[in-house]
Amino acid sequence: MMGLMPDGLRTVWSIGGPRGVIDAIRPRLVSRTQFVRFAIDLETWNPPRAAEPSVEIRHGLDELERLRQRSGGLPSEFHLDRLRGARRPYLGFYDGQIGHISWLFTPSDRPRLITLGPDEVELDGAFTLPAARGRRLLTAVECAILLDARREGYARAYTHVAIDNVASLRGVTKTGFSPAGLVTLRWTLGLPWISYVAEHVVGLPV
Questions:
Q1: Averaged pLDDT of the chain
Q2: Which residue segments constitute the domains of the chain, with CATH numbers given?
Q3: 8, 1 Cβ separation under 8 angstroms
Q4: Which helix (H) or strand (E) holds 172?
Q5: CA-to-CA distance for 140 and 103, rounded, in angstroms?
Q6: Any idea what DSSP says for residue 51?
Q7: What Å distances lie between residue 183 and 1, 29, 160, 180, CA to CA?
Q8: Of 13, 22, 84, 197, which has the highest C-beta tally within 10 A?
Q9: Alpha carbon distance 102, 88 (integer Å)
Q10: 72-101 as b/e, with b when 16 or more CB fall inside 10 Å?
C-alpha cells in the first residue's frame, strides 16, 4: 500500500479490518498536514526530573512482540516495525500496565519527514493510550531514548508533532525540545510531497 512496507496492508487489515484500510488509504489520496519540527542538542541537554517510581521503560522488538501477543487491539503505532520498517521501540509502563510507545529512528532507518545526518536521530510514532494520559509517560520515554542516543554518540535529535496536537506539543517541550520550523506533508494520489520552513514557530500552547 502507498507509503507502507510490503506487508503493511496485511497489518493494517489485522488492526482495523476494512475500515482501517480505508482510513489508511484516504489521507494518501489528497491531504495536507502541518507538523512542528522540534530539535534538541544532545551534548548540552539536561534531562528533566526522573520519572515517577511507578513508571518503567522497556525497549526492543522482542519486548514489543511479547506485549502484542498478550494485548489485543493496540493501535498502529505499536506496529511500525511492520508498517514502516522501524526497529527500535521504547515502551512506557505505569503500575505494570502499558501506557505509551515511541520509536527511535537512526540515519539507516526510514524517517517520514526528515533526512538525518550521520550524527542525528528522530523520535517518531509516539502514542499514549487514553487510560495513561496525564502521567508524563511521553517525557519519561523520550528521555530514555535520548539518553541512549547520546551514549551511542549521536549529537542532535528531532521530533515532529502535528500542529493541532496540543498535548504532545506541551509534552515534547517538557522533555527539552525546542521548535525549529514547520513541515508540510501533502499527499496527492499516493505521492508524498514534503516541504520545510525553518522559522520561529509562534502561538504554541507550551
A1: 89
A2: 31-197 (3.40.630.30)
A3: yes
A4: helix 166-175
A5: 13
A6: P
A7: 23, 19, 8, 10
A8: 84
A9: 9
A10: eebebbbbbbbbbebbbbbbbbbeeebbbb
Cα–chain center distance at 90: 10
Does the CA dihedral 100-24-27-186 come out positive or negative? positive
Q: What are phi and psi of 171, to 5 degrees?
A: -60, -45
Cell numbers for 61: 522488538
pLDDT digits (tens, 9 = 90+) for 41-65: 999 999 998 778 889 999 999 999 9
Cα 102 to Cα 37: distance, rounded to the nearest angstrom? 16
Among candidates 44, 72, 48, which has minimal Cα distance to 141? Answer: 48
The pLDDT value recorded for residue 1 is 40
Handedness of CA 180, 164, 108, 191 (dihedral sign): negative
Helices assigned H by DSSP within 127-165? 137-151
**How many angstroms separate the CA atoms of 178 and 204, rounded?**
11
Which of 10-14, 68-72, 121-125, 182-186 is predicted with the least confidence, judged by mean pLDDT?
10-14
pLDDT for 141 equals: 97
Beta bridge partners of 160: 37
State the Cα–Cα distance between residues 137 and 144, nearest whole angstrom: 11
